[in-house]
Specification:
Helix content is 72%, strand content 0%. The protein is mainly α and 295 residues long. The mean pLDDT is 81. The protein is globular. Helix 3 (62-79) crosses helix 6, helix 5 (127-139) crosses helix 6 and helix 9 (234-256) runs antiparallel to helix 11.
Length: 295
């Protein structure tokens, strides 16, 4: 019922639930800074932590979710009376900067909490188990309750918005033959079954898919900053599809156990970013290819 009215939903998320989640997370992070659970161990096993963290960050869905939620947010801004394109873009831009800053603080804080636990647990510990143990050490008997609040707020805020975006997309795809509310119910029921698979299983299933789609989303986000200089839509298409194709081929070859020296020789290939330079090359090439004119 919460997602039946997207406008009301976003307002409730923005005014109550998301700020509450931010406050709860900041309390946990500050507690970890004031009373760290351990010393930060020297990293000797991985020399590419930053790039590995960037690739692992695909699983957060932040960029993909932002692209999807942006559609709803723009609609709400226009519904509030800001119909002028320049004004609405300005409002959404300020909101995006604020949200990015908040996310940056949270991720840096959580990374610090993980670093203070680096000398206490095995390196292959499951992500959910690690978070549970860190919170239990920081907060004692109240740790599980606190973790439950965090998980509920994080999942509910993200889940509600994703359900709304998905339902709106498929309703529009069916030319409104399937109502938005019907699809909200269907997506919600489907999501309930999926969540019972388990976090690690969901990540292992979604990981390869995100590994293909996410680079294309990153490329689009980067290119949009140069939108006023890009007069050719082929730049977006060629760059995004090239990134996806390289990631798909790389994933298939890895599953088949086939090693191609060409892919390995690409810059940043060992860090999982072999798609970066081909995408740049495709964007530069597409700049000189004129799009087909519509008849």
């Amino acid at each position: 019922f919460f997602t039946f009215k997207p406008t009301v939903m976003i307002e409730n998320l923005g005014r109550v639930l998301t700020p509450l989640l931010f406050v709860v997370l900041m309390f946990l992070i500050i507690k970890g800074f004031v009373t760290p659970i351990g010393e930060i161990a020297q990293n000797s096993a991985n020399e590419n932590l930053f790039l590995d963290g960037l690739v692992m960050g695909y699983q957060t869905l932040d960029v993909l979710a932002a692209l999807a939620f942006g559609i709803i947010i723009i609609k709400i801004v226009k519904a509030k009376g800001y119909n002028d394109t320049k004004t609405s873009f300005k409002i959404v831009g300020y909101a995006s900067i604020l949200a990015a800053f908040g996310i940056m603080i949270v991720y840096f804080g959580l990374s610090y909490l993980g670093a203070t636990a680096s000398g206490l647990f095995e390196q292959n510990i499951a992500k959910a188990v690690l978070l549970n143990k860190i919170i239990n050490i920081l907060l004692g008997d109240y740790g599980n309750i606190f973790l439950g609040i965090i998980v509920f707020l994080a999942c509910f805020t993200t889940g509600a918005a994703l359900v709304s975006v998905t339902a709106e997309y498929f309703s529009k795809l069916s030319n409104r033959k399937i109502s938005y509310k019907t699809l909200v119910v269907v997506v919600t029921i489907f999501s309930i079954f999926v969540t019972n698979i388990g976090l690690e299983q969901i990540i292992s299933f979604a990981g390869p898919i995100l590994g293909i789609v996410y680079p294309a989303a990153i490329v689009l986000v980067i290119l949009i900053f140069f939108d006023k200089y890009i007069k050719n839509d082929n730049v977006y298409k060629f760059a995004a599809f090239t990134a996806m194709i390289f990631c798909f081929v790389e994933m298939v070859l890895a599953r088949l156990g086939i090693n191609l020296e060409f892919l390995k020789s690409l810059p940043l290939a060992n860090e999982g970013l072999s798609w970066l330079f081909p995408a740049i090359f495709a964007a530069l090439l597409a700049y000189f290819i004129k799009p087909k004119r519509k008849a």
